[in-house]
Amino acid sequence: MEGPKEPKIITDKNEMREWSRSMRAQGKTIGLVPTMGFLHQGHLSLLEEAHKHTQVFVVSIYVNPGQFSPNEDLSTYPSDFNGDIKKLMSVPGGVDVVFHPHNLYDYGMGSVGNSEGGIERDGVVSCVEDGGLGHETWVRVERLEKGLCGKSRPIFFRGVATIVTKLFNIVEPDVAVFGKKDYQQWRIITRMVRDLDFSIKIIGSDIAREKDGLAMSSRNVHLSPDEREKALSINRSLSKAKAAAGMGQMNSRDLINTVIESVQEAGGKIDYAEIVDQESLKAVEKITSPVVFCIAAWFGKVRLIDNIEISG
Amino acid sequence: MEGPKEPKIITDKNEMREWSRSMRAQGKTIGLVPTMGFLHQGHLSLLEEAHKHTQVFVVSIYVNPGQFSPNEDLSTYPSDFNGDIKKLMSVPGGVDVVFHPHNLYDYGMGSVGNSEGGIERDGVVSCVEDGGLGHETWVRVERLEKGLCGKSRPIFFRGVATIVTKLFNIVEPDVAVFGKKDYQQWRIITRMVRDLDFSIKIIGSDIAREKDGLAMSSRNVHLSPDEREKALSINRSLSKAKAAAGMGQMNSRDLINTVIESVQEAGGKIDYAEIVDQESLKAVEKITSPVVFCIAAWFGKVRLIDNIEISG
């Protein structure tokens, strides 16, 4: 038996592209799983999904400043690069390349990190409206980015779509895998790929859950044992709503109210709870076509998101 | 001697990409010249420029609805496809492919052309904010798109950056050539390519001029003989301004005023006249580094643009 495969670590974007092109020249198809690191089993399940579709695999590990607002905690975002590599080596078949760039918004023009550039002091990328040579190009999926998580994080999906475009142009994958836990993100990337004619197949991978049903998330470690127990109300009430719909309860408002009550009774604070069309993410009043029930709720200081698809 | 080379005409975007990939697999580099058709000598000079850089050549002919406002005349934009092909065949070395898609915003989902889609009745693409499955992804170069032509045409460069992204993802060229007559467009595309990590070299090609100095434009045919004579004031006064700067006259305001007076005396109506940094397109008060003097002016019903680089 072969030992665990150690991935090649690439930090330079040109070297990354050259690697991909050399693989393509050998007739190999390339899979990409973009991450911000601090990997858990949910990320590894994306890689397992990727293994079904392509022959070689790239995992990117890059905390993208472009998707953080100045008031969000970019500087304290957790990381554990060595632990990530070990986890990736544990996946059957492993991963060929870990792409781990230092700064994808530094264009080598001395324009980053000063007042003329696109990066402010705290590392948050901003569009400088009135001067400078910093980063200023943004990809927006203008309708899908607005609802659900986009309401409380207005520049989040602009940052996500832009960094994914950059990663696509650097890695040039045939397939990219995104988790359906971030349902809106997955739909936004899928729409972006269609609208901008990227030749990349986007795979949505099912939510990985703990044994008790909690959706896996880097944030789960911040939950106290008590909060963690209470947070199970999210998945439990979503599952009940799906079962009720299966029994003919098709009124969205009633289903939503039941879920909100359950989560609030458990001590959660609702950010949003919506039943939306799976494709357009538009709210629906009655479930007559495939929908997804999306929820975001706070337990203590931790904001959790989850969702469940209902075929309608 | 070989006769003129007849280009292969491709209308399907997947066929276009397959052609490019087959060329790349043969080790050939690919040049792209994006146009909206109704070609003149200025376009052909872009192709001649492309011939210096790559081995095979694609000219796209596509009138992009995404860059027209509802009040602009998309429906009457001139076209002469057969004439264009003849002109392309006259260029030494010719062109390998003419990419001539029907509609790059139709994603085959029945979502275009109805109220739910991204295309309105008059064919203008709009971002539908509150519904539908139509096109909704836009690339914006947020600072560079604002000044000069962006002032009077606020969605123009959004449409340009988006269609060029689409064409890049379909044709996958190594080099793309843009005319420096559309100076702002060239700078925007160059910045976009940098910011989004496209692996494409952008070439700015010098302005092609008539013998009397008038910058070549599809719009020149709409000028009356009298207007055409008067329009020569644009290039003449720009050249004088450059000469004055070469003699030490470095105050932008003075140079601009002289040009405005000359063009107005000739009967032109100024849209804008600005001296800006060649890279950032920010207005400069004193010429101490490379600048470009950009002007847009109306002669009768025809809006002409022109510019001249001044090394500073």
Structure in a nutshell:
Chain A is an alpha/beta fold.
Oligomer description? homodimer
CATH superfamily of the largest domain in chain A: HUPs
The CATH class assignment of the largest domain in chain A is Alpha Beta
Strand content of chain A: 15-25%
User: Greatest interface and its residue counts?
Assistant: A-B, 41 and 41 residues
Question: What does the overall shape of chain A look like?
Answer: globular
Low-confidence stretches of chain A: 110-122
- Helical content band of chain A: 25-40%
Task: Determine Rg of chain A (CA atoms, Å).
Answer: 20 Å
CATH topological fold name of the largest domain in chain A: Rossmann fold
| Overall number of strands of chain A | 10
Order of helices and strands of chain A: EHEHEHEEHHEHEHHEEE
Explain what this protein looks like in three dimensions.
Two copies of one chain form a homodimer. The model of chain A is unreliable at 110-122 (pLDDT under 50). With 312 residues, the first copy, chain A, is α/β, with parallel strands linked by helices. Chain A folds into two domains: 8-205, HUPs (Rossmann fold, 3-Layer(aba) Sandwich); 218-310, Pantoate--beta-alanine Ligase, Chain: A,domain 2 (2-Layer Sandwich), CATH 3.30.1300.10. The termini of chain A are far apart. In chain A, strand 2, helix 2 (41-51) and strand 3 form a beta-alpha-beta unit. Chain A has helices spanning 13-25, 41-51, 81-90, 149-152, 156-171, 183-195, 225-246, 252-265; strands at 8-10, 30-35, 56-61, 97-99, 137-141, 175-179, 201-205, 269-277, 291-299, 302-310. Chain A binds chain B through residues 13, 17, 25, 104, 107, 127-133, 135-144, 146, 161-162, 165-166, 169-170, 172, 191-192, 194-199, 279-280, 282, and chain B through 13, 17, 25, 104, 107, 127-133, 135-144, 146, 161-162, 165-166, 169-170, 172, 191-192, 194-199, 279-280, 282. Strand 5 of chain A pairs antiparallel with strand 5 (137-141) of chain B.
